[in-house]
Each structure stands twice: as C-alpha cells, then as structure tokens.
Design a protein that fits this description.
There is one protein chain. With about 70 residues, the protein is mainly α. It has one domain (about 1-73). The protein contains 1 helix and no strands. The chain has one helix spanning about 1-70. It is rod-shaped. The N and C termini lie far apart (about 105 Å). This is Cell division protein ZapB. It comes from Desulfomonile tiedjei. Keywords: Cell cycle, Cell division, Coiled coil.
Length: about 70
C-alpha cells in the first residue's frame, strides 16, 4: 500500500510540475505580448504627435496664404 501511495504522490507532483511549467510559459508569452503592445503604443503616440505637428505647420502656411490672397482683394 505504501508503494501505491508513493506512486500516487509522484504522479501528483509530476502533474503539479507540468502545470507550473505551463503557467510559466504562458506568463512569459503574455509578457512578450505586453512588450509588443507597449512598443506599438509608443510608435502610434509618436506618429500622432508628428501628424499634429505637421498639421499645425500646414495650417500656419495655409493661414499665411489666405492672408496674402485677402490682401490682394
């Protein structure tokens, strides 16, 4: 009976080790996905800031052109 209990305990321990390894792999994968997401958010943020800057510059140029056209009329 002791050998049966020992075998059952070994089986449970093996199962717990496998579950732990699977959890560790999932956490690592999730961490990598978070890093990718954070990197993409940073890229998008920089793009938005550049577009806002470009828009502001273009609007300034357009306003100056409109002022010059209005001065001629």
């Amino acid at each position: 009976m002791d050998s049966d209990k020992l075998a059952l305990l070994e089986e449970k321990i093996t199962h717990l080790i496998e579950q732990n390894e699977q959890s560790r792999r999932e956490q690592e994968r999730f961490g990598r996905e978070l890093e990718k997401r954070d990197k993409r958010i940073g890229e998008l943020d920089r793009t938005v800031k550049k577009l806002q800057k470009d828009h502001k510059a273009a609007k300034g140029k357009l306003d100056r052109i409109i002022e010059k056209l209005e001065a001629f009329t």
